[in-house]
Design brief:
binds 2'-deoxyguanosine-5'-triphosphate; Beta Polymerase, domain 3; five-stranded mixed beta sheet; 4 domains; Beta Polymerase, domain 2; DNA polymerase, domain 1; alpha/beta; 17 strands
Length: 600
């Protein structure tokens, strides 16, 4: 195959041995096993680019998976004289290679493949969405070696002509190449908000514009968004498109027409604009807000009633019977208005037809924050500042949940420092009106499920929030038992960020969420929807499962600054996506009600 004779890499790119196969944060096993797995995955990727025997490629991937799941470090297995070829998916040959990496930290076979693969080509694997198979096709069909080659091929429109590639993929690649690797990745909702609000505010002043709504996943308040979809009501779409294209943060105009314009911002975020006449605005909002499967289901419902739904309205024959507002459109389909957060085709259409839509929680239902840090642990502001900021938000209470001592990097409080903090809270409460600061802790759940504070210390607290901050690599069984045991403690009222995931950065630890939810319900322990923009943990699906099982939820900002209290809003959005109503949530209640509720 051509690759073997390919010219040396241009541009002096360095080989990035880990880059091609960066796997997020799966590395929860002993580092060594993870390193061996990573080496095998890189081998598989490079072999696949070379068009090697697919069985060989798969063998490396399977062995990598086995290594991921291994409970014991390979080095220890070898020291015990264990036969590695007994491991699933590991034959003689791979067993020898595992031993080689474990012993030397290197794999000669990989170095050989690396030596004959142009490094720039291998590096293309760091572009999101571009796997080894596609890299091979680009190389074989278009002679692409470097990122610059690839960009030119996209600009020439050659990439879209490769079978199964297409124009949309070409556009995505181009976006990724323009903005660097981060560009094509999905954005956290909070990151997209600045762009969304600023575009909206300026488009509202564009010629003839009556309304601007950011629709799509942004309006559904999905935790990450792929792009921004702006829906605008205006008589002249070309003028609005021109206005958008002229904004200074627009890096590339990808498409332009009388009703739709697509641009890519300098930040790498894509923006799709649709302009409709004001009497179609509601229909366009319905059409471009719901997930694809939601709008498909709506269209089928329309059809079943002898109607037609599109982005311009609901039609009977040629007559438009609705379109100006979303309410009209839903009504014409025999439905109550469905809040955007529910438009995911997860039962909301049936509920809307039967008048069973939930009364979703709103930010105004929130009466206090149950997860807040101060500069006593890893927060940035003082106790007084945080409590005053909570009062300024109209809260009746705020739980001061600094870390316990086990969280050493977070400067967690030992019993002595906690006791001093509780005294300070008592003094503050004695002089403050309008809010009560709750004596609380975000206590570490130790490896075996015990808590990091003695019962005497816990007894002085108004509220105990427990969380895992260490030993993420435990097996699913161990991790689950650890959480259940923590909930067995009668003082624990909330499990914070129950999965430990960090959006775009770290998978949650392995845990049996159904078992956690069932236990939470049985023990009367709440599960948190942590509102921090990088956590949003529980996610929408898990939180809905918790609600359905009858478990309580709590929405906590996990604020480390007074500004961070404002993240509550994102937690409420996530809760709405989970169909959560005020009564499912602890902190929609007054402190006396809440206090009675958590007493166990
Ligand atoms: P994203 O951007 O990946 O975070 O997710 P969405 O849901 O914003 O998806 P996007 O940007 O592809 O589409 C925006 C909206 O337009 C979304 O509400 C679905 C709707 N939509 C887009 N294309 C189609 C289509 O071909 N058919 C239907 N029924 N709806 C579509
Ligand atoms: Ca979108
Ligand atoms: Ca879009």
């Amino acid at each position: 195959m051509t690759l073997l004779n390919a010219p040396p890499a241009r541009g002096g790119d360095s080989l990035a041995p880990q880059g091609l196969i960066a796997r997020g944060a799966g590395a929860q096993m002993a580092a060594q096993n993870a390193d061996i797995a990573r080496t095998f995955r890189r081998m598989a990727d490079l072999l696949e680019i070379e068009d090697a025997n697919p069985f060989r490629v798969r063998a490396y991937r399977r062995a990598a998976e086995t290594l991921d799941d291994l409970a014991e470090p390979v080095a220890r297995l070898l020291a015990r004289g264990a036969d590695l070829s007994d491991l699933p998916g590991v034959g003689e040959d791979l067993a020898g290679k595992i031993a080689e990496i474990s012993r030397t930290g290197r794999l000669a076979a990989l170095e050989a493949v690396e030596a004959r693969t142009p490094s720039a080509l291998a590096q293309l694997g760091t572009i999101p969405g571009l796997g080894p198979r596609r890299i091979r096709a680009l190389h074989e069909r278009l002679g692409v070696v470097t990122a610059a080659d690839l960009k030119q091929a996209c600009l020439d429109g050659r990439v879209r002509r490769i079978p199964h590639f297409g124009r949309a993929f070409e556009t995505r690649l181009l976006t990724a190449l323009r903005g660097g690797a981060a560009a094509a990745a999905r954005r956290r909702l909070a990151e997209a908000e600045d762009d969304a609000h600023s575009l909206q505010a300026r488009l509202e002043r564009a010629p003839g514009v009556a309304r601007v709504v950011v629709a799509g996943s942004f309006r559904r308040r999905q935790e990450t968004v792929g792009d921004l979809d702006l829906v605008v009501a205006a008589p002249n779409g070309t003028a609005v498109g021109d206005a958008l294209a002229a904004f200074e943060e627009v890096a590339t105009v990808m498409a332009k027409g009388p009703t739709r314009t697509s641009v890519v911002l300098a930040s790498g975020l894509q923006v799709d604009l649709r302009v409709v006449q004001p009497d179609s605005f509601g229909a366009a909002l319905v059409y471009f807000t719901g997930s694809r499967s939601h709008t498909i289901a709506l269209r089928e419902r329309a059809k079943a009633r002898g109607l037609k739904l599109n982005e311009y309205g609901v039609f009977r024959g040629d007559t438009r019977i609705a379109g100006r507002t979303e309410e009209d459109v839903y009504e014409a389909l025999g439905l109550a208005f469905i809040p955007p957060e529910l438009c995911e085709d997860r039962g909301e259409i049936a509920a809307g037809a039967q008048g069973r839509l939930p009364r979703l929680i709103a930010l105004s239902d929130i009466r206090g924050d149950l997860h807040v840090h101060t500069d006593a642990s890893d927060g940035r502001e003082s106790l007084d500042a945080m409590v005053l900021a909570a009062r300024a938000r109209g809260y009746g209470y705020v739980a001061i949940t600094d870390h316990s001592a086990h969280a050493r990097v977070a400067h967690g409080l030992d019993v002595t420092r906690l006791s001093a903090q509780l005294d300070a809270i008592d003094r503050l409460n004695a002089r403050l009106q309008g809010i009560v600061a709750l004596k609380a802790s975000e206590v570490d759940i130790l490896k075996d499920g015990r808590l990091d504070l003695p019962d005497e210390a816990l007894a002085r607290l108004d509220l105990v929030v427990a969380a895992i901050h260490s030993d993420f690599g435990l097996s699913r069984g161990e991790q689950t038992r650890r959480l259940l045991r923590a909930m067995d403690h009668p003082r624990v009222s909330i499990i914070a960020h129950p999965t430990g995931r960090l959006l775009g950065a770290r998978e949650g630890y392995a845990v049996d969420m159904d078992a956690v939810i069932a236990h939470a319900r049985n023990r009367g322990c709440a599960l948190e929807i942590n509102a921090h923009p990088s956590r949003l943990d529980l996610n929408d699906i898990q939180a809905r499962a918790a609600k359905s099982a009858g478990a309580r939820l709590s929405i906590g900002s996990d604020a480390h600054t007074s500004l961070g209290l404002g993240h509550m809003r994102l937690g409420v959005d996530q809760a709405r996506r989970a169909w959560i109503e005020p009564q499912n949530t602890l902190n929609t209640r007054s402190w006396p009600e809440l206090k009675a509720l958590i007493a166990r």
